[in-house]
Amino acid sequence: MSRVSTLIIAILFNAMTAIAQPKEDSRDFTIGGYGEATYSYNFFSNNPYRYMYPDRYRNQSGNAQFDLPHVVIMLGKEFGKGWSMGTEMEFEHGGVEASIEVEGDEAIEIEHEIERGGEVFLEQFWIQKSFSNRLNARAGMIIVPVGLINTRHEPDKFFTVFRQEGETTILPSTWHQIGVSLWGRIGNWRYEAQLLPGLNYRLFSNSGWISGASASPYEYTVGNRLAAAVRIDNYSISNLRLGVSGYAGGVNNDAFPTSVSSNGKVTKGVDGTVFVATADYEYKGKHVVSRGNADFGYLENAAAIGTSNKNSDNSTFSPYQHSFVGKNAFALGTETGVDLLSFKGNPEERLFLFGRYEYYDSYVPSKGQTDYLWTDCSRIAAGINYQPISQVIIKAEFSERILRSRYNNEPSVRIGICYTGFFN
What we know:
- This protein has 4 helices and 21 strands.
- By secondary structure, the protein is mainly β.
- The strands form 3 sheets. The protein has a 16-stranded antiparallel β-barrel.
């Protein structure tokens, strides 16, 4: 049995054991989660060369896709005296199914097969000490609260079938790293401050800016450079939350201080700093719900980092992006939904008619860098969210990604069903 399967079985067994205990022993144990199942039909070619040769793919047929974007199991425990723990195990795109098989009809060959694509990972694991509502300390694998999506990533916190495209293109989502955090709420203000390892610049790219750089392809995370993240939210106005967040951190050049180019020359790593500033809001009224975000990023020394990435090891199993990266990236977005059943009197059943617009660019180049115009795009979406009960939502939308005139726009239809909540 694989290590992943053993871990999953152990988590589920422990959860069921805790539920079966007497009430007085399990009253501080929580189990919950969320999940999404989706269907998409894209009215455009999904070929990776469609931006390089747009004319070749202008009239290509579309493609349909089924997916399980996120299925998450959440466990929590209050130990007493202010101590608690929380953990999230996430399965993306159905998880991973791998096996080693003995093929008797192939001269007793032993084969390693990948039967299903996807990812399984620990999204959160932290220990917390609560001193009061004003001060809490947390350490472990924690969510980095930069941007709207990283603080509100459950499927009932956005109208679209998939998470907001602009933010998830330029920022990690859900952004989680090993670190320490101080947070609390004072009156109408909530704050959080974190100390984290810096991002791995070998995983920066033109199509995703820093979105893939919070993970590590190795069994450890490099911490030669550190970073800080802060977030402040205000709840002074009824039904409205206003938030700002920021991030600043040096970049890491994975575990290797030097690399060797094709001509045998040894090159040193490149220094740089990532800065991110965001602002967002969320209004939740009886009849209307609205959300929006504005995210801006700056990468110091982007041209040199991009050149270093292009010249890095390009072997078959290299985990690097080998991509130029922009000095700036941004994402602007807003969505508003009107509840058509809000006058019915049933607080659980809701039917939102919503619209969304966003504009983002994952690659604003430095002077002299190659410009990739296809990274600059807008996206519109309109659809419905039907919520028969508070934990279940059925979503449907039509959307279109609008690119520069030389490229082909990318319309699609999407349907999804999701749940979120605690089970005890």
